[in-house]
Amino acid sequence: MRKLLFLYLFCASFILTSKAKTNNGPMILKTQEVDFKDKTGDEIKAKMLDLEVIGIQEVYVQDSVLMFVTSDPKAMLKIYDKKTLKPIAGLCQRGRANNEFAGQMVQFYKQQFRRNGDLIMPFTDLSTFIQKEVNISASLRKGHTVIENTCQRSSHNRDFVVLDNGLDKTFTINGLEPDWLRSPDSMPLPVYAVAENNNIVKEIQVFKEHIKHESILQLGTFYGGQLLKHPDRNLVVMTMRSMDYIMFFDLDNDRNFAIHQKGSPTYADIYIYDDWDKNYHGGTGGPMHIPGTDKFCVLCSSGKYTEQTLAEDGMGVELLVFDYEGNYIGGVKLNRNIQSYSYDPETKTIYAANAVTEEIFTFDLSDFL
User: Fold this and answer.
1) Number of domains in the chain
2) Start-end of H helices in the chain
3) Residue 369 located in a structural domain
4) What is the pTM of this model?
5) Quick check: is 163 in a domain?
6) In this predicted model, what pLDDT tens digit does every residue of 293-332 receive, in sequence order?
7) Closest among 22, 39, 5, 41 to 245, alpha carbons compared
8) CATH number for position 85
């Protein structure tokens, strides 16, 4: 499995065109069959960091720093030196000032980008649903939280990622839940779209009609998933909550496609029941995914290894690595249950955190990538 990335990058176009076509029923994206579930290789052991971060919720690594989103109202973003593990700054306190957050700040999907050389991270205030760009670099230079731009978001839609390294343009998914007030017995097809200033400017048709279903109660679960954006390009990857698909939306090139786990049920095969236990329980999404590099992404998923270790001791997760053409590069098993993780391409290391135990780990992927 080692060093597979380079082989796959050279062979990507041949591999993609050689896959079998898929009968998707109501889903109209061009889809290729790929074999990626339960194919992970070696188990990588965790190394615990001697670092205590109270109220940890998310972990990020970028260049020379480690960053943690916490529940501490005096510093919801804590920054440490990656090598020495010494604290550098505490940013984003709770408050009413323009450079503060009225409630807990979150990233529904992890994003960070550069603007004029500075590292920017967009966070949403859960109290006001105002999204704010935190300029990490400027904040470290000035010694206080620096906010670049803000945008009011809808509290009804958390399924979006920002595009063009700013807040004005987004890729968004609307209509994953029934409108119980206006139309309790029907549900429109979900809308996958590009929006500017919260107004849809381009819709991407993914489904031509609804999946066969008993009622609308469970529909949204089979249309929704988790989003991940390429570090530089307007390319969005979407893993599915209940189906073994991964969708790719190359927005700048108007090229949208999907891959599907070979042999598992497709959208043409399933029927959705009100009784959740009767439904198909697949899915390619686990905890929050992360961009790897400009050549591959890292997806957190579940399979037989995860199910076995969770049943035994509550530990174990699988990381799947894909290039942005949908080719499966490989995967590894991590022997810890993690809720948040971030990839450091400089050292080929995963930094991960368990929000329940507040333990922080590293996983060395240098022999794999």
Assistant:
1) 1
2) 4-17, 136-142, 219-223, 304-313
3) no
4) 0.89
5) yes
6) 889 988 877 656 555 655 455 566 788 899 999 999 998 8
7) 22
8) 2.120.10.30
